[in-house]
Amino acid sequence: MLRLNHVQKAYGTPEQPIPVLHDISIDVADGEFCAILGPSGSGKSTLLNIIGVLDHPDAGEIELGGVPIDFGSATEAARLRNQLLGFVFQSFQLLPRLTAWENVALPLLYRGTPRPERKPRALAMLDRLGLGERVHHLPAELSGGQRQRVALARALIGDPKLVLADEPTGSLDSVTAAEVLQLLRQLNRDFGVTLLMVTHDRGLAEACDRSIEILDGRVVSDVRRDG
Amino acid sequence: MMPRRPAHNLEVAETLREALANLRAQGRRSALALLGILIGTASIVAMLNIGHIAQLETSKLFSHLGADMVQLRAMPTGAAPAALDRELIEQLPARDPDVAWSLPLATGRAQVAFGSQRHDMLIVAITPALPRLAGLHLERGRSIAAIDQCAMVAVAGAEAATQLSSPGNQLMPTGKVAIGDYVYSVIGTLRPSFAEALSPGDYNKALLIPLDCARRVLGSSAPTTAMVRLRPGADAEKAGARLSGMLANASSSIEVISARQLIKTMNEQKAVHTSMLAAIGGISLLVGGIGVMNVMLMSVMERRSEIGLRAAIGATPRDLQLMFTVEAGVLALAGGVAGTLIGVLIAWIMAQYSGWTFDLAFYVLPLGSGMAAIVGLVFGLYPAITAARLHPIEALRAD
């Protein structure tokens, strides 16, 4: 499903590069619920950005669904993100002046889906995530957990091959965080969504099928659990 | 394989709807940017429409007499009153190939009394052909005719008739008016007429009498002015010089006023005004454009995380550029439409104030709005490119 081959990335100037990722190779199978665990500064966010085609690696290759990713064109990258990926952010990143369903439908807008098709699909997706009663609410009128559900619905609406979640519970209290994790779990099991979650929370990582620990830009452990 | 999509896949209607929603969300700031464009467009539209009205007014000044009119006026050279040779004036068409027709006339002022009314009035002594050639129309009665010759008959202009009338004593044909020391019979009254540039005076305020025997009230029966209509294509300047040479005599020098000369002077003045107003309008529009750019740049900076999010979920750089360009265009177009309406309103107010007839120059409607939209698109381009070039990660981080 996802294959990283000797991926390297450094920031800083060409004269004084600051390496962030050293030679990372990972394979994520279809339907896996995988955590990338690491403290801040470990390079896990950079890794997620590269997998999310938001940033390009200095060396190495990435294959998504068997197709090598071309990082050369910003337009092509946007298409890949739109077609293959779903994003969930720590700060939700909902557009405040759009209602829940309009936020959810946004990826379809950039796919060129006509408006009459977008609305029913967004409503159905929100319904699946248990927000059927809140579709016309603005983000400000929703609780943190509800907002993250809207964000999840937005990530899933385009039927992505892979959903990338960056500290998805980082802005939530522990009860709500557990709920969202439960939901992710459920989506992974019931709908077969492949999930890649970045977190610094070991407890959260241990709830996943697999956790890959990163430290100083290197994979230090890769643990699989039986789900 | 992934299906190919066009580089930007948003329908125009979608983009417009988004742009309107975004602008509404920005409220007051959008309104301020709009104001600059509005003022610029309003001044340009007002200027163009006033120019259009002024042109109509100018052409009205020559509507009956035409642009080929030349007025030759006798100016006294010494103590003797200025006078022209009437026969010579009447022979001008035969003597000069450029002259279509030529009318002698004399003007002066005299005390006019009717009933209890007594006024100092303009007297125009004419030959029978003048009313028709000058486009004067009768309200009542008849005009001065060849048979009147030396008769004591008068035709009253519309305002003059009103001025001389008193309640219960209307000035009408067959009424008697005293002009100076003589009693004239009123044979007709005129409809109101438009005072043209080359009229010897405002016929509305005048009494017309036969030039023959005008000596009774004007002191002389000799004409003081020749109204000459040149043939189309004649050189007004050369013909004027030639005719004034023919008409000049010991007691009078000739002043030549040609319609073409007047029109040229008016057009020159208008050109100065127009270019000045165009410059002011252009500068306001430029300032408005910079306002749009400013607002759009601020909007791009404030909405960085939105731009990052949109990029993350699949907006291409062109989608983002289009989004901000359309926002700027819509903003400017709204300002342009409002400015056009206000500009037309200003032109209307100016026309009322100047006593001109308002006429809408239809071409200003698309022109004003279109110019504003173009300004918006041009000045919106840089902010839009800035938005398209933002790196999604940095944009997402900008919370």
From TrEMBL, chain A:
Name the record gives this protein: Putative ABC transport system ATP-binding protein
InterPro entries assigned to the protein according to its UniProt record, in alphabetical order: AAA+_ATPase, ABC_transporter-like_ATP-bd, ABC_transporter-like_CS, ABC_transpr_LolD-like, MacB-like_ATP-bd, P-loop_NTPase
Pfam families in the record: ABC_tran
Span of domain ABC transporter: 2-227
A GO MF label: ATP hydrolysis activity
Top-level taxon: Bacteria
Keyword NAD among record annotations: no
GO CC annotations, alphabetized: membrane protein complex; plasma membrane
Protein family per UniProt: Belongs to the ABC transporter superfamily. Macrolide exporter (TC 3.A.1.122) family.
Annotated keywords: ATP-binding, Cell inner membrane, Cell membrane, Membrane, Nucleotide-binding, Transport
TrEMBL record, chain B:
Membrane topology: Multi-pass membrane protein
Domain ABC3 transporter permease C-terminal: 280-392
Domain MacB-like periplasmic core, chain residue ranges per copy: 30-243
Family matches, as InterPro entries: ABC3_permease_C, MacB_PCD, Macrolide_Exporter_MacB
GO cellular component: plasma membrane
Keywords: Cell membrane, Membrane, Transmembrane, Transmembrane helix
Keyword Kinase belongs to the record: no
GO terms assigned for molecular function: transmembrane transporter activity
Transmembrane segments: 32-54, 276-301, 322-348, 360-382
Keyword field contains Transmembrane: yes
Localization annotation: Cell membrane
Assigned protein family: Belongs to the ABC-4 integral membrane protein family.
Protein name per its UniProtKB record: Putative ABC transport system permease protein
Native organism taxonomy: Bacteria, Pseudomonadati, Pseudomonadota, Alphaproteobacteria, Sphingomonadales
